[in-house]
Design brief:
Strand 1, helix 1 and strand 2 form a beta-alpha-beta unit. This protein has a single domain, classed as Rossmann fold, CATH 3.40.50.720. The protein is globular, with a radius of gyration of 18 Å. It has 259 residues and is α/β, with parallel strands linked by helices. The longest helix has 29 residues. Strands 3-2-1-4-5-6-7 form a 7-stranded parallel beta sheet, sandwiched between helices. The chain is built from 7 helices and 7 strands; from the N terminus they run βαβαβαβαβαβααβ.
Length: 259
């Protein structure tokens, strides 16, 4: 552990597993007091227990970010436990796969409620508190899917991740004079629990599409978040940081063929 974020209050949503869990652990290792938020209370508890076992400080909050009342409770829990909110990592998101022809209005609304409306609710609740404190950092987990690329079955997901960036740019302007910065990290293919059942051949094909030749790790996203939350990034706002091993660079698969 280090003291880089000592005594800073950090909220991480969607921290019950995957990238969010790693983000929470990395901030805790840097000395932050972390509120672990997830719709899955047990997942949040497991993450917090791991942080405490490592010597860090963590509290939990079960919340559905798509429900405004839950998010207001979340912000209140951070104030109750830590006395303020220094960093918000709005990471919670879902990505069910369904083609446009088969997609229902309920499918569309569910993904938008969690991914996009959830980000709006979290920023609204937490940035206002940061304004009162005299500053803070807001970090959004977007994706390369939507803002840069597309993938069959993820039209609703891609729309939310692109919409998140449009929201971010205006939010960054509105809060800039209050010393609240708002930035987004766009992950590529990251090795998480969600890939456990896809099989070795699918993983091989995924890795073959990445110039660096391998999937990213959750820590790669967490370290990007750590930088954007740091004092060194105090003059960066409304920006996106792509973390994809070069996946979005090739013009076509031909660019990755060996000479």
């Amino acid at each position: 552990m280090t003291d880089r974020f000592r005594d800073r209050s950090v909220i991480v949503t969607g921290a019950g597993k995957g990238i969010g869990r790693t983000i929470a652990r990395v901030f805790a290792r840097e000395g932050a007091r972390v509120l672990v938020v997830d719709v899955d209370a047990q997942g949040a508890a497991d993450t917090a227990a791991t942080i405490r076992k490592d010597g860090g400080r963590a509290e939990t909050c079960a919340a559905d970010v798509g429900v405004r009342a839950d998010v207001e409770v979340m912000a209140g829990e951070a104030l109750k436990h830590f006395g303020g909110i220094d960093v918000l990592v709005a990471n919670a998101g879902i990505f069910p796969s369904v083609t446009i022809e088969e997609m229902t209005e309920a499918d569309w609304d569910h993904v938008h409620n969690v991914n996009l409306k959830g980000a709006f609710f979290c920023v609204k609740a937490c940035a206002a508190q940061m304004r009162r404190q005299g500053g803070g950092r807001v970090l959004l987990t977007s994706s390369i899917t939507g803002p840069i690329t597309g993938f069959p079955g993820w039209a609703h997901y891609g729309a939310t991740k692109a919409g998140m960036l449009g929201f971010m740019r205006t939010a960054a302007i509105e809060f800039a004079r209050d010393r609240v910065t708002i930035n987004a990290v766009l992950p590529g293919n990251i090795r998480t629990e969600g890939l456990a059942d896809v099989g070795p051949e699918y993983l091989r094909k995924m890795e073959a599409s990445i110039p660096m030749g391998h999937l990213g790790e959750p820590e790669d996203i967490a370290y990007a978040m750590l930088f954007l939350a740091s004092d060194e990034a105090r003059y960066i706002t409304g920006q996106t940081l792509v973390v994809d091993g070069g996946q979005t660079l090739p013009e076509s698969a031909l660019a990755l063929e060996s000479e």
